[in-house]
Amino acid sequence: MTPPAAASPLVGGSDRGGALDWPRIARDLDADGCAVVGALVSSDECAELAALYADDARFRSRVVMARHGFGRGEYKYFGYPLPGVIDDLRTTLYPRLASIANDWNAAMGIAVRYPDTLGAFLDRCHRAGQSRPTPLILKYGAADYNCLHQDVYGEHVFPLQLTVLLSTPGTDFAGGEFVLTEQRPRMQSRAEVVPLGRGDAVIFPVRHRPVRGARGSYRVTLRHGVSRVRRGQRYTAGVIFHDAP
User: Which residues pair with residue 175 across a beta bridge?
Assistant: First the structure.
């Protein structure tokens, strides 16, 4: 299978994951089901990524949420080659997240294990016919929102993903909070509202995570979405590690 084309020159070339506090991120994911990473993307990079939304040539498809019952607003999936900053995030965060994902699968009794590099994992996706890139930019205006959902594409799913806020809350928009819900067995759902600043990222599960109970770990199901934007315009970047059919 031919590997994805090289990243486009928008920023790129750094190891964004190298300086992060991975023990803290792993603890937060285990305890809360999500972990916030502050200032992962610079303000200039946020502006450049948001500006790309107007360039249809950079994207492989556009989705208007209301047409599909997904909410209100729209998003576009990037085509290959990805912008450099998105490629950096995907490539350099993957190995650290793969270690967490493998620990989680072991705890949940899931046999799947993830290789050490993104390239090796994408080869697995591509051999199964999943070769379309999944990173995207989402655009919300006043009264827009995103229903609770999971970003599952095809058989091969990497169990962690991240969202980066590209706009400034309180200035560019109001409302539009990132929301994560957790459905626990025989219990009511738990909701987590995650405040983010411009350039901050939230790392969270795609489908489920292990939770320790009195009789060992059990699996809980998660969904994520965005609450109603009260005013202004909100852009985010979604970084998903598995490709789609």
Answer: 229
The shares of helix, strand and coil residues in the chain, as percent rounded to the nearest 5, are: 25, 35, 40
* Complete DSSP assignment for 113-143: ---SSHHHHHHHHHHTT--B---EEEEE-TT
**pTM beyond 0.90:** yes
Amino acid present at 87:
D
The partner residues of 72 in beta bridges, in order of sequence, read 145
Place of tokens 């390239």: 119
Dump pLDDT digits (tens) for 99-152. 999 999 999 999 999 999 999 999 999 999 999 999 999 999 999 999 999 999
Q: Give the CA distances from residue 225 to residues 11, 142, 182, 236, in Å, rounded to whole numbers and listed in that order.
A: 28, 16, 12, 12
CB of 108 within 8 A of CB of 219?
A: yes
Domains of the chain by range and CATH? 22-239 (2.60.120.620)
Rounded CA separation 147/227 (Å)? 8
Three-state secondary-structure class, residue 179: strand
